[in-house]
Structure formats: C-alpha cells, structure tokens
Amino acid sequence: MTGLEIKNLSVNIHDKEIIKNFSLKVPKGEIHAVMGPNGTGKSTLSYSIMGHPAYHPTQGEILLNDQIINDWSPDQRSQAGLFLAMQYPVAVPGVSVANFLRTAMNIRRKAANPSDKGIPIPEFRKILKEKMAYLKMDPSFSSRYLNDGFSGGEKKRAEVLQMAMLKPEIAILDEIDSGLDIDALRIVAEGINTLAQENQMGILIITHYQRLLDYIKPDVVHIMMDGHIVLSGKSELALELEEKGYDWIRQEQPLP
Ligand SMILES: Nc1ncnc2c1ncn2[C@@H]1O[C@H](COP(=O)(O)OP(=O)(O)OP(=O)(O)O)[C@@H](O)[C@H]1O
Fold first, then answer.
1. Which residue intervals define the domain ABC transporter in the entry (predicted)?
2. Distance from residue 35's CA to the centre of ligand 1 (Å)
3. How many angstroms does the Cα of residue 120 sit away from the middle of ligand 1?
C-alpha cells in the first residue's frame, strides 16, 4: 500500500506499555483523525512513527510505502517523506526559519535525486514568499530564529509552513489546532486542505476538538483509548464524541 501502515505496534516508556497492539492504515490521499482522552498515547504514537529513539517498538511494524522502517533514523524517515507537526514545537535559536527550511528542502531533494545541487536561492525565496502569504505570515518571520519567541499560534503556523515547503508524503499533525485563534484555525485548515489535495498526501490528524474537523473533513475518525484504537467511523463520530464524551465508548468497549 502506498502510504503509512502500522501493524500491531507496542511501545514502552520506562517499561510501561503505552502503545498497545496498535494498528492503522493511512493510504496516500486520505485524511484520518485520531481522537482520544488525555494520556492515551497519541503523542507517543506520533513520536514512535517518526522514530524517536526513546520510543522503540517492543513489537509490531511501521511501514512506509510497504517498506518496514522500524530501524530507520528520524532523519531517514523525514527524507523518505514522513513529517511531524509537533504538539510543542521546539525553538532553535541561531537558525532562521529561511535557513532551516532551505536546508531541510535541500536534504529532501538530494534524497530523491543524489545529483541535485539544491534549490536556487531566488526560486526558494519565491516559494517561501508564496507559502507565507498563503498562511498570512508576516514576511519578517523568515529571518527570525525558528520558533524563538513565537506565540503558540505562530509556532503552529510555522509547522504548517514547513509542511507546505517540504511537501511530505505522510504528515502527522499533533494538535495543530491548539493555540490557534478562530481566524488562524481557518487559515491553517485551508492551507492543510490545499496541500493535501495538491500533493495527494496522507494525513493523520491528532486532535481533541471536533471544530478542526469542520474545516478539514477526515475520511475516517478513530478513537484511541488506552494505547490502541477502540472505534473507527465516519466524520460524524467526532460530532458524537463532542456531544457524549468518552464514557459511552468505555461502557460499550470494555478495555482489557
Ligand atoms: N518521557 C516520559 N516519561 C514518563 N511517562 C511518559 C513519558 N512520555 C509519555 N509518558 C506517559 O505516557 C502516557 C501517554 O502520553 P502521551 O503524551 O502520548 O498522551 P496523549 O494521548 O498525547 O495525551 P494528551 O492528549 O494529553 O496530549 C501518559 O501517561 C504520559 O504520562
């Protein structure tokens, strides 16, 4: 399958099993949402998919375009087209947004074509300007240090800017809606929709709130509890959750 596949994945943190026999398929071109209570393992899942060294699987497989990537470094995964918009993006003082993006784009281009000489600077500037305008980011952000002193919402926009520039095959968006005001939520969501359509990306959205899914229509909504998916359904499932909370699922699907 072209896309991301997770088969029977279990991941421990400090000997405690957090991800428990988790399975999911996100084909390219589809949008999947994962919702679930606090502490259920959603961010752990996103770090495990990206290959964070502290989140090594104890069982199961992660596949990208049918290749098992369990032993790939985060760098290799990123070069192959995986992308994570982090819940808490880190500041990188000393590295400007523009330099960071150009370096990341060049590494990805070289991975696809070893003889690539890198994106010419005028072309890079043109694309960056376009994408920043689209996300309604002030051009001055390109020369600021990445996430350094950015507000919560600015950090989230900077994550989507990275996604727009890098055009991954599979993007995991961990609470991309947190910290966004109502206008920013719409702008960011429109940006994600356009990118998803233009590039036939697979997208895995982790969110607590149905409101994001008013703007980005998922093909499937999954409910994750206690480290694995307990229920999957159409986008109406998110509405049902908003109305009823999680208790009814706990009652209908007793956890092991
Ligand atoms: N480095 C760590 N050390 C100890 N426990 C951890 C660590 N990282 C995660 N955990 C625990 O793993 C569980 C899952 O955390 P995770 O952040 O993946 O949940 P989440 O579903 O993303 O939660 P939220 O919705 O609150 O963001 C939590 O109980 C958390 O305390």
1. 4-251
2. 14
3. 42
